[in-house]
Amino acid sequence: MIDVPAAFANLTYIAGAASAAGVAAWIYPRRERFGRAGGAIAAALLISAIWCVVALSGGGVNIAGAIAFSATYLAWLFATYRLFSIDGRDQSLKPIRSVALVLCFVEALQLALAVAMPSLPLEGESARVVFSLLVLFRLMVAVGALVLVHNLYVGGGASARKLLRWPASALALMWVYDLNFFTIAYLTGGIPETFAALRGLLPLAMAALIAPGAAVTGRALKLAPSRSVAFQSFSLMVIGGYLVAMVGIAQWLAYLGGDFARTIQLAFVVTASVIAVLFLPSAKLRSWLKVTLTKHLFQHRYDYREEWLRFTRTIGRAGEATTPLFERAVHAIADITDSPGGILLVPGENGDLQLAARWNWASLDVPASAMSAEQADFFTREDFIVDLDAMRSGESQARESEFVPEWLTAAERAWAMVPLIHYKRLTGMVVLMRPQYSRQLDWEDFDLLKVAGRQLGSYLAEREGQEALVESRQFDEFNRRIAFVMHDIKNLASQLTLLARNAEKHAENAEFRQDMLVTLRNSAEKLNGLLARLGRYNAGEAVAPGAVEIGELLEQMRSRFAPIHPIELTMKDKIAVHADRHALEQVLAHLIQNAIDATSDDTAVLVNLKRDSAHGVIEIIDSGTGMSPDFVRGGLFKPFVSSKPGGFGIGAFEARELVKAMRGRLEVESREGLGSRFVVLLPLAELSRLYHNQERNSAEAAE
C-alpha cells in the first residue's frame, strides 16, 4: 500500500465535507427535479459532510465516527429507495421495500455492535472475530445496496433512466468503493489505511456526479463534441499511439544489445518514419478515419427501426382492453419524445379543431373550440412542428405565435404541437406534454415527428373514410327497414280509415258509435301524420320555413314538460326566426327531454332565449352527468349509436339535420360530472328576404 500523507488525507476530508454540503444546499431548492427523492438526496449529502467533519476531527474510529458512518449508510439507503418513486416502482415492486428494510436492519445491528465494542473485554481471537463480523455486516449492506442500484437503473423506463443515471452512478461508486474497502479489511484483518485516508474523496465524487442531475436540462450535461473536434482528437490519438509504439519497439530492440541490435533499431526507426510520412497525410486515410468515427463514435438520437416498430405496435394494438384509436395515436407520438401525456385535436364541422382524446393529461383545460379555422389553416399550409418553449422565449423565427391559441400558450406543461397532415389536409393536431427531463427539440426530433405525423394522419383519414362508408351502408339498411315499416303503417292506416267509414254507416248504438269513431279517427290521424313525416324525411324533401315566434313556442314547451320536470325559462325579448315550426318543435322537444333524462334530481333545466347580430339563440342547459369529449365527437351525432335500449340512436343526429335544413347550427359543450349545454342558432326572420335573394341568385347562376 502507498502511504498517504496526513495533510493530504485531511485535505480530502475537508474537500469532501465542503463539496457535499455545498451541493446539498444547491440541490434542496431544486429537489423536485428528483421527485420525492430530492429531499432524501440532499439530506444524505449533508450527513456525508457531517461524517467527513467527524472523521477529520479524529472520530473515525470511536463511537461518534461509527454513528456518523452508519447514519450516512442509512441516509443513502433511504435515498436509494426514494429514487424508485420517480416512475412509481416503489409501489409496484414490493420486494424493493423488503430489501431496503433488511439492509437497514443489518446496518442497525452493525451500529449496535460497534457501539458496544468499547465496553466489551475483547482481546486476541475474540477481538478478531468481532472485527470480522463487523466487516461482514458492511459487506452484506454493500452487496445488497449494489443490487438495489442495479435494479433501480436497469428496471427504469427510457425517460426515467435519463434522470436516474447521475444519482445511480454516484451510489454505484460509493458501494463499489466500500465493497473493495471492506473486502480488503476482511482479508487482511485490519482497516486499509490508504483506502481510509482517501475515502474523503468519495463524498466529493458523489456530489460531482449528483449535481448535473439537478441542472436545468440534460442536453448541456452530455459530452457532445463536434465531429470536427472529435476527428482531430482521434487523429492526435492515432499519431500519439503510433509514436509510443515506435518508441517502445525501438527501446525493446535496444535491450537486445550489440551492433546487430543497433542496426535493426536504426532500420526500424527509418522504416517507421517513411511509413508515417507516406500514409499519415493521406487524404484517403483521413477520409477513412472520418467515416469510421461517424459510424462508430457518433449515432443518431433515435434508433429509427425501433421507433417505427414501436409506433406501429401502438397504433395496431387490438383486443378488448385496447384503448381507442385516438388515445393510441397520442400515445404513439408521445413515445417518440418520451412525453408523459398529450391530447389530440381533430377538425369539427366548421373547420375548427376540437378535443378528441386525452392520454395521461386530464388536468389540461381545453375549450370547446380549441383552435379556430383560421389557425388550423395556417398549420395546414405551413406543416411544421411547433416548439412551444422556443416560441414563448422568442427564439423561433416563424410567426406561429400569431396562430397558437392563447390557452395553449398559457399552459406551461404544453411542449410541442405536431400537425397530422394527409394530402394537404389537416386531419388532427397532437399537443405533447413536457417530459420530466425536459430538453430542446432539434432537427432530428422535427424530422421524425413530421414523418410520424404524416403516417398518423393517413391512419386517421382512412378511419374517417371507413366510418363514412359504414354509415352510408347503415343508412341504406335503415331506409330499407323504414320502407317496410311505412308499408305496414300505410296498410294499417287504410284499414282503420275504412273501419271508421263503415262504422258511421252500420253502427246501431249511437253512443258506442260515437266513442268508436273518436277513437278510430284519432288513431287514423296519428298514423297518417307519422306516415307523412316519415315519407317527407325519407324522400329528402326540404321543410317549409317561415317566421316563427320562439318565445311563444318555448312557453308551450315549458307547459308541456312542467308536469314531468321543472323548467326555468329566461327570455329578454321577443324573437322571430326563419324556421319550420313543426321541425323546430321536434328539435326542442328532443333536446329538453334529453336534458331531463340526464338530470337525475329535481334540479331545473335552464332554457335561455337571446339574440346576436344575425341569429336567435336558444340555450338548453342541464347539470346532469355530462358527456366525454370522445362521445360528443364520436357518438352523440352518429346515427345508430344509442345509449338507450332498443333506440335507433338518430335523435341527436335528426335534430342537427333539421336545424341545418333551417340554415341554423346546433352546438354542444359538455363536461363530465358538470352537465351539458346545447345551443340552437337560427337565422332571424327579418333576414329571410336576404336568404331568399341568395338562393335565387345561386339558382340563376347555376342555369
From TrEMBL:
Key word Membrane present: yes
One GO MF term: kinase activity
Alphabetically ordered keywords of this record: ATP-binding, Kinase, Membrane, Nucleotide-binding, Transferase, Transmembrane, Transmembrane helix
Pfam families associated with the record: HATPase_c (PF02518)
Residues annotated as transmembrane: 6-28, 40-57, 63-84, 96-117, 129-154, 166-188, 200-221, 233-254, 260-280
Enzyme Commission (EC) number: 2.7.13.3
Enzyme class name: transferase
Repressor found in the keyword field: no
Reaction equations catalysed: ATP + protein L-histidine = ADP + protein N-phospho-L-histidine
Gene3D superfamilies: 3.30.450.40, Histidine kinase-like ATPase, C-terminal domain
Matching PROSITE patterns: HIS_KIN
Superkingdom of the organism of origin: Bacteria
Domain called Histidine kinase: residue spans: 484-686
UniProt-listed PANTHER family: SENSOR PROTEIN CREC, SENSOR PROTEIN RSTB
Descriptive protein name: histidine kinase
